[in-house]
Amino acid sequence: MPPPASTSILHRSSPPPPCRMGDIFKPAPKPDSELRKYRLLSPSAGVRVSPICLGAMSLGDQWTKFMAGKLDVKEAEEYLDYFYKAGGNFIDTANNYQDEQSEMIVGEWMEKRGIRDDIVLATKFTTFFPNRHAQQWTEKRIGVNYVGNAKKSLKHSLEASLKKLRTDYIDLLYVHWWDHSTSIPELMQNLAEVVRSGNVLYLGVSDTPAWVVAQANEYARAHALPQFVVFQGLYNYAVRDMERDIIPMCRNNGMSIAPWGIMGQGQFKPAEDLAKKGLRGGATEQSAANKKICDALEEVAKEIGGNTKLAHVGMAWARQMYSATFPILGGTSIEHLQSNINALSLTLTDEQMAKLDKAAPFDHGFPTGLFGVDPRLLPEQSPQSPLLLQVCISTWHGAGHVKYPKAV
Ligand SMILES: NC(=O)c1ccc[n+]([C@@H]2O[C@H](COP(=O)([O-])OP(=O)(O)OC[C@H]3O[C@@H](n4cnc5c(N)ncnc54)[C@H](OP(=O)(O)O)[C@@H]3O)[C@@H](O)[C@H]2O)c1
């Protein structure tokens, strides 16, 4: 709920204080933290969010082993308080994170602080969410419709999320992953209904092939339905597949990206730190490929100096690859969170970006590998494709491409 209007203004015993024009239309104070430099969520969603989103998968103590860390309820609230006090208003959770504990923690925290409407709250449906430990789900009950993208799964998951989050609306509801079963018309019609009902404000999609999202958005626009405004997926300096089709699809569909795993899921650290903290998912040692990635990040971090960490360089790299990027940052330590917020001011030079690209070049595969990348991404917008180069020669100008805006 928005803060209640003060009744004292109606029944005032003393005259109101003098009021000048400048008092009413006072400009907002300059942001005191990088996190308060709010940005539009996406080219097709005007809600304003902090430049990083707090990943709530680490809030709770049910997935301790898998996450290589935990935050109990009290610690999670401190973590959330730190983020909020620094200006953070964007939180990402899901129906099943920490066996539902994550949504419960966020819901109780928002209610206790009375700040639900300050927060731009994202959650997800698709994954099976009811208590997976309860024997009844394997022995007595039928769980088949509590998973997937069909209408029944959406209804149950959304109703449960609203209860756990102690709210009557979700700002951004994601399809968590593509189930290869529900048709695009069914999905988009059902999602439009939850938006029309007021239970959901915006739609997002995660871990789904580009062709599905492009087709779903086309269907939505053709039927005057809401489209997906954000794509959430695994994207970092070590895993760049989203550059192949997903980012170009977002650029052409008015969508932003919310990358997860941007810190390499905790692996962007010097080897000695990794040995101390341990790796997620039970891995015992750093892979050779990851070591190469970390070495390149470390070289740039050292060049920048100060307290720059590998993780900071990784975050800056991803933010500079596409202008509408909202990293979802995971973690359990306030110290890391604080340093990540400060690192929002870090901008890598063109030389540093080129150095990182050279150290871990990305293979676009076919057709881009053969016909060249979008010239709007290249220096001088000069096409790589011999076929497009023919156009330049015949017109004696460039091929007419205008550079994409640089990420800020
Ligand atoms: N859509 C999906 O399928 C999907 C899948 C996975 C995750 N997600 C979302 O994305 C969020 C983040 O995912 P993630 O946790 O897997 O990836 P991540 O953000 O890449 O990794 C988080 C890890 O990075 C470490 N870290 C953070 N800041 C650091 C720093 N400054 N220096 C060194 N290490 C640092 C953290 O360590 P400490 O714990 O020590 O701070 C934590 O272990 C999740 O919370 C969730 O909301 C979505």
Automatic annotation (TrEMBL):
InterPro entries referenced in this protein's UniProt entry, alphabetically: AKR_Detox_Biosynth (IPR050523), NAD(P)_OxRdtase_dom_sf (IPR036812), NADP_OxRdtase_dom (IPR023210)
Keyword Lyase (UniProt): no
One Pfam family in the UniProt entry: Aldo_ket_red
Coiled-coil residue spans: none
Protein family membership: Belongs to the aldo/keto reductase family. Aldo/keto reductase 2 subfamily.
Name used for this protein in its record: Aryl-alcohol dehydrogenase
Domain NADP-dependent oxidoreductase per the UniProt entry, residue ranges: 51-359
Organism: Dioszegia hungarica
Gene3D superfamilies: NADP-dependent oxidoreductase domain
Organism classification: Eukaryota, Fungi, Dikarya, Basidiomycota, Agaricomycotina
Keywords: NADP
Source organism superkingdom: Eukaryota
